[in-house]
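User: My notes are a mess, but here's the protein and nicotinamide-adenine-dinucleotide's SMILES. Can you give me a structure?
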Amino acid sequence: LFSSGLIGQSWAMLFASSGYEIKLFDSHQSQVENALSNIEEQLHFLEKEGLLRGELSRQEQRERISSCSLLEDCVKDSFYIQECVPERLETKKRVWSEIDKLADSTTIFASSTSSLLPSNISQHLQNKNRFLVVHPTNPPYYAPLVELIPAPWTDDDVVPTTKSLMLQVGQVPVILKKEIDGFALNRIQYSILGEAWRLINDDVISAEDLDKVMSSGLGVRYAFMGPLETAYLNADGMHSYYERYGDMIYALQNSFGPPLKMQGETGDKIQKELEKYSCPVSEIPLRRQWRDKRLVALAKLKKEL
Ligand SMILES: NC(=O)c1ccc[n+]([C@@H]2O[C@H](COP(=O)([O-])OP(=O)(O)OC[C@H]3O[C@@H](n4cnc5c(N)ncnc54)[C@H](O)[C@@H]3O)[C@@H](O)[C@H]2O)c1
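Assistant: No problem, the inputs look usable. Here's the predicted complex:
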């Protein structure tokens, strides 16, 4: 694993839960030490909550993860490298150039990027045919979706092999047949955010009520099925759905208008409301813990169903 921040730590725990040996490398050695103690804490928490993945004990999983101070040692003999450095194209290109010089020609090169196109990160690499994006959803331990996005030059075996690896560690891989800005998850996420912004900008609804539209409405179903199956079940199949609602939906979609920039008075209005119904900015870390507890409960429920 190349780098040991938030996402690097999650990947380490996921791979270790299936028995893989993980070597953690970071440009800041102290960060690796921090990461290892965070991982230790998280494994304790997961064990206590009964959420530890895989068949191995907490101790066995922890022992699978080691630190590595020399990049050569990390890359040598690795069959898969997951890069999790900050989201800057130049940084990613630079670290992949370093890995490229040391790696085996069969090693899979996977980047965790959430927004950069695989072709832009890998075009300069000698082993660019081994490269793909493997984009996790945060927090990966409770939100198992992973988007796999090949570059135009990625070898045919790379996506299926990575898909098998993801299934083995308990994630849910989806494959994008070609690269596109935002991949699938963020294109959908930002469409929702864009329309939410417009409804508040046009003073149709309050921020608090808008959030309820998702948390008590659409989101309840979306925890178990996507928008296509939702439509399918809301009528007698997809043909029946669009015969009934297609014209109305099309007219509505045409009324959406161009995207609005997130800024100005609407931004101030949303911020003010969120400080009341969610929490003041200073209490965000506490509210994240509240969120994570609920995600744990949902993950438990989904496991039991
Ligand atoms: N956080 C999320 O919600 C999320 C979700 C999906 C994907 N991602 C992607 O994962 C990647 C990492 O995000 P993060 O949230 O873990 O970031 P982070 O800031 O928590 O971690 C980045 C790590 O990279 C290390 N680093 C910086 N420069 C380096 C270098 N040159 N060589 C090696 N290590 C270096 C830092 O020490 C740090 O440990 C990004 O591409 C991000 O877009 C993040």
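The pocket of nicotinamide-adenine-dinucleotide is lined by residues 2-8, 26-28, 31, 84-87, 91, 95, 112-114, 135-136, 138 (CB under 6 Å).
User: Great, I'll file this with my notes.
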